[in-house]
Batch of 2 targets.
Target 1
Amino acid sequence: MLSASRENLTVRLGYILRRFLFLVFVMWTAATVLFLIPRMSRVNPIRERFNALARSTGYAPKDLESIIASYELKFGLDKPLPQQYVDYMASVLRGDLGVSLMSYPKPVAELIGEALPWTIGLLGVTTVLTFLIGTVIGALAGWPRSPKWIKGMVPPLMILAAIPPVILALLLVYFIGFRLKLLPMGGAFSAGLTKEFSLPFILDVLSHAILPAFSLILGSAGFWALGMRGMGITIQGEDYVNFAEHKGLKPGRIFYWYYVRNAILPQVTSLALAFGGIISAGVLVESVYGFPGIGSTLSAAILANDYFVIYGIGYITVVAVAVSMLVVDLLYPLLDPRIRYDRK
Amino acid sequence: MTSAVLQVSDLRVTYYTDSGRTRAVDGVNLTLYAGERLGLVGESGCGKSTMALALMRMIKPPGRIESGSAIVGDETDNVDMLKLNEEQVLQARLSRIAYIPQGAMNSLNPVMRIGVQMIDAIQAHRPKATKTEMREQAEAALESVELKRGVFHMYAHELSGGMKQRVCIAIGILLSPKVIIADEPTSALDVVVQRQVMETICKVQEKIGATVILIGHDMGLMCQITNRVAVMYAGKLVELSTVREMFTNPMHPYAKALIASLPNLDNKGVFRGIPGLAPSLLKLPSGCVFHPRCQYAMDVCKTTMPQQSVTKSGRYVYCHLYDKDGNQVSGTPLIKPEAVTN
């Protein structure tokens, strides 16, 4: 037994190592693609930026070409491509994603660093809540013994899920924020408050988060419920659920250990993917509420042709998906014993 | 014979489907004694499994148990499965009457260890038992079906088909029930493992003194394993006899045709099937349900349902060819045993 478990441990460590190397490979590929895309394009982001400035202010500097050339020198764009690639990779490794054009000379990494906690706070929490609410409703809706009113909850949730979260967000802002004035209409905290770890500030942040959270939860709980209900209906017809009834087990025990425990497996995969996608999921909702997260930053960067910020956020998104897939791959064998760490 | 451990009388189960009511089990009477093994045979859809589920009180909507009683246990300690409330039914399942499922391949929860699934079952009926007691009981049950104690720690996907079936049997006998229903327990196994599994069932049955109802289509297996055979047709029990009588001298024309269709060593060549198809339960023929396919059908068969005849040796048969005591009514077509030797 002991040698077997030690052997098991080395197999697991080997698996984790392989999986980790794969993550590094994904990050390298993403960085390379993001290096190549702007260099394949004929658009010069620096020239675009100055053109936009010229359009908005009506002032075009006479020595535009020399300014652009000096910027290219600064960003190392005059060097041969391989040399640029090596420099770029070295800076990505250092966590340096370049400098924002929109709010020059702020580094992209800093810009993302400021926005990321807000996004993780709002979308991380809403994703977990949506998953829990949707999965519980879906599990109950697929269970034959549940009362009718629970089964009746799925269609309204589906209708809400069919409405884009932005529309829901606008409706909530108009009725609850503007008409009824029950909750703040936007922002992450009230103007005039300083960011500090105190009760009034935390309550203020929470009151600002309620509406965006609601538009996200109402908008996607239906999908989770539908997925869980579908899986649940399949599982409740399985022989092992039937046999559990023949064993005379209490319905509650069958519900959790035989039904939910098996039906939830695909939901967990989706949850990990949803976590990877939270950076891009909230773009529109964050914009509606003027919430200072990654989504707002991204939409502002797109409007301002701020390529470096766009690529930076793109890179972070790829890394987030890859990391959550790694976490799922590591957790899955604990949830489902049929999936093993070794390659077989 | 020893005391009766299962007395089923006038059991009726109906499914209320969109296209009408179907009587899946229609007035079945049956008495089984301790230590006895009954084979329940019949075409697919004739109500064998429905009857087993009714005894377990596992009929779900749109099905309904319309009437009847099913007394499980001897004179001193018995319950009527069909009259218990929800709570009592849960307690009676497995401890008084156990069911060994048809699809053993898929009857074990893939994400729980075998041992946990066994302890689950014990705990539901004996909440006061300690962990060590329950574990000892589960491992002993595994041993009694010739599995290693180590199976306790394994998952279903680590077991072979035969092992999974044995685990299901081990769970079925955990609480020494008086009645064990085995619904085609060996249909997915090869003949060698089939025999081993059946011998295992018989051995544990003798150990705990239960009665076994073996549901299946395999007449060869029935012949080797059971003491008595019941033949069902379209929801009705048409004949109940000892194995020897059933195979050498079947009384009911359907049972006779069924036995005649079996291959045996003396009777090589062409086999005779039963003409026609089993009737739809939605539109049962009038009178005796078998009359459209019966070569002995008389006018009375088309209008009147036959009554139960009981012979001196205790055989039941439902056919107009016989009077109340199971003697052939004079003037009816002679029904004699085919050249079937056993």
Target 2
Amino acid sequence: MLTADKKKSIKTISEQAEAGKLRRLLRFTTACWKLNLAGAMEFRFSFLLTVGTMIANNIVWIIFWGMYFERFPVLNGWTMQDVMMMWAAAAGGFGIMSIFFGNATRLANLIVTGQLDVFLSQPKPVLLNVLISRMSVSAIGDLVFAIFIFVGFGDVSLFGTLKFALALLLSTMIFIFFCVLAGCLSFWLGNTEGLSFQLFNALLTFATYPTGIFKGFGRIVLFTVIPAGFISSMPVSLIREVDLPFLYGASATAAVLCLAGILLFYRGLSRYTSGNMMGLRR
Amino acid sequence: MKTIQVEQLEKIFQVKKKQHGLSGSLKSLFKPQYADKTAVEGITFSVNQSETVAFLGPNGAGKSTTIKMLTGILHPSSGSATVLGCCPWTERSKLAYRIGSVFGQKSQLWYHLPPLDTFELMSRIYELRREDYKARRDNLIERFELGTYLHTPVRKLSLGERMRCEIAASLLHRPQALFLDEPTIGLDAVVKQRIRELIVEMNREEGTTIFLTSHDAGDIEKLCDRAIVINHGGLVFDGQVDYMKQQFLTHKTVQLVLENDPGELAAPGVSVLNQGGCRITLSVDTGITTIEAVLAALMASHRIVDMTVQDPPMEDIITRMYGTFQVKEVSL
């Protein structure tokens, strides 16, 4: 039985109350990314094979489009270069999301199986902590592929590179927060893993087809419910030449998705029911 | 100020009711029916600084739900709580810097990486000063004897080794209160004992408040001064562990293997639960006789080949408690 020296004061060793909060948040974020990468590289052969397979998978699509443009050089005003840049923006945005915010596509599963407990017990913004705690190895292949495509087909001048970087930023934000919104449905609807996956798949699929081939209602859907149009239009409306109304629209969409995603997630946390599933961080 | 103050805390979950089989699933698809399940029903208690409290109850009693509300993981349906002066669900982040939590079934450690890497990440999560972190980490490594497997990926550690790393990780930031949800689940007797000693040390040396759930009577006896027992979401006992033992741990189970068949056994306070030749299981009422007296009487006429003495399962004690205590709280 305990006979503790009962009234000891515990001196904190945390800098939490001191200035430099943002710097420490960045350190935490980079530490998490480093661990993800270290974990992914734990199985060296599998790591290299997964990255290589994803690059090969994407190359198949490039060959398909290459064959198409050999027969029809222009598709509704889209050239081969535009289609390549569309792939670069979509694969790059998806790649960045899956490498650095890899839990975005798994959010519904984490919520419904009660795996947010560990994140909720730590003193960091929960959504950020959840998102950055996983890295998809295959997505490294997507990002490498996007960079190769940009170098091979894009405008690599300083202005061209800045425009491509902006396209990647917007594409990444749309991907992440669309997934967050879809995943948050689990707080209200229960197991929406399938629905969230379908919504994400729709976004990814439509982001890799030229916007020019969609008309009428389909086009409205692509710029509202499934905002893939803002990603697939990047080559003609931002990378080829800057169309300001499009840029404002894409930026506003990314910002609204971001705010709505964060708001919905934190609203949903009050409905979180946890669970008794065994869990280990991978 | 109390370290933990809980008042009328309640948590109600909505549970979908479904008949069994495919037809039940189809009916439920078109006409779902829900029922409210009260996991925690208006419990009130408080815990002082440096206290070691066992929070007990059978499966489904509401222990884990309560601990999750106190650590800010779950929001309650009604009632209030403060931990170290913070409301757990509205000041979750502020509180998390000052408490530690270990969930026996949920790991903080990264599965494919060595524990040292997780410790490094924890130092960033809790924003620890580098020098203080290194000193603290080295101290915990020495104390928890983690040196030999510090560089081994967690997936290759035994459950006991992993749990030691788990508890060490939760103590890195010097928490003022430590919440442990079944920390010894699935561990062998030796590892359990070591983990208990380490928790006791932390409480003695640093005054860490310990709030622990367990089904293991040993955890409660070795670790805790006080026990709070809940059943069906409600509080049924709140008092000193010694008093609880005196009141409810009135029986011990003795399993014996004798050299020869002893025939019929009878003694005051002793009942035979099971007998098959030389193997006998006895229930000894320690309020009437002692284990020592029973064994002495047996050894006078028989040779004992093997013997174990066990406490009755915690569920039995709690069931007995629940039958006895009709009042919500017993203060000593």
